Amino acid sequence: xxxxxILSRLGIEELNEMQVAAGNAISSANEVLLLSPTGSGKxxxxxxxxxxxxxxxxxxxxxxxLTPSRELALQIEDVWKKMGTGFKANAFYGxxxxxxxxxxxxxxxxxxxxxxxxxxxxxxxxxxxxxxxTTLILDxxxxxxxxxxxxxxxxxxxxxxxxxxxxxVSATSAIDIPAFTxxxxxxxxxxxxxxxxxxxxxxxxxxxxxxxxxxxxxSLLSYIGGESAIIFCNxxxxxxxxxxxxxQRGIDxxxxxxxxxQTEREQTLSRFRNGSVYFMVATDLAARxxxxxxxxxxxxxxxxxxxxxxxxxxxxxARMNATGTAWLLLHSEEPLPQYITDAPEKVVLPANxxxxxxxxxxxxxxxxxKKDKISKADIVGFFSxxxxxxxxxLGMIEVKDHMSFAAVKKNKVRDLLHKTAQEKMKGKRYRIAxxx
Length: 436
Known about the structure:
The chain contains 15 helices and 18 strands.
């Protein structure tokens, strides 16, 4: 398949410098270490050359990609499907029915993406034959190690006896390559640059007189106004608590962490992506590996324990030649972490900033998706005809396997739900409601 045809399907005019370099390295070498910032296009950088290694007459799993999170697995699967390669791909992860995955293996995918725990489980069950796999990609492998997946990854690697290509991918440079990968002399493609990030990213500090910093966070978000921000907390409970207290004070926001069910995760990320909500309170799960847009502000409600996590959090802003601000919320007696060498500018917030404006969009949930043969065009047509929405009143649309999401102007939501309540889309009635 022609590369230009694939790029056209993805809406990309040409590959960036990193993607070209990665493609050349992966095509010519059997061991590659790809280092590049979050948001630089690493997924396509390794998928394109991997496509060239797949054999159309082979009905077995040929390439395995391990990821630290289900979101990253789904993101890679989605990119592959949009490429339209003709080769089947599946994503396996916790929270997904094992029976559904086993059933999909009746016709094995050429490319399998999954989390270490779920893939090791399938190997132990015997539902996956690891001997057929010739290419292994460890995406965000340092994050997988940090999350405690080393035992599972080592087990999987030990079962892959036919490997002839190993690709390690990360957004962090100060890492050791684990022995179980058997990667000894990789070709290194390094596009990490501290200098570029420093020019685009501005660090600022806000001091809280109270140890409970939620009042200061409230003032900061009011000061920021209607610009997107991710507020990072170190624990799930803290993220939920901060989110709840912001909501009680009149600031619309969402929270995101690993304890949410998959449907909840999908709805939360969709609302943030499409601009239905400006603020997301999250754990470090949102620091990388998620398909979410660049934000204007990163707020460290709690400071991370390591410099690497600080860098990854900040990587959600000031990406790809854009600018952004990382805010450090510190208690008056809280020291600056040692990994920050230069004290950032201190900002004194105004006493009474107005509440941030509400986002102009709401997210509509539809109980059908790709598996129901629903496309974006179907949703546009249905909402335009049955819902009588005009151009500009319908925003971003996302179609998942079993559900879909559409951004609709808030002032049109009630009317839309009323008009579509008894209508059918492609001959079937689906549940249509406001995503929570």
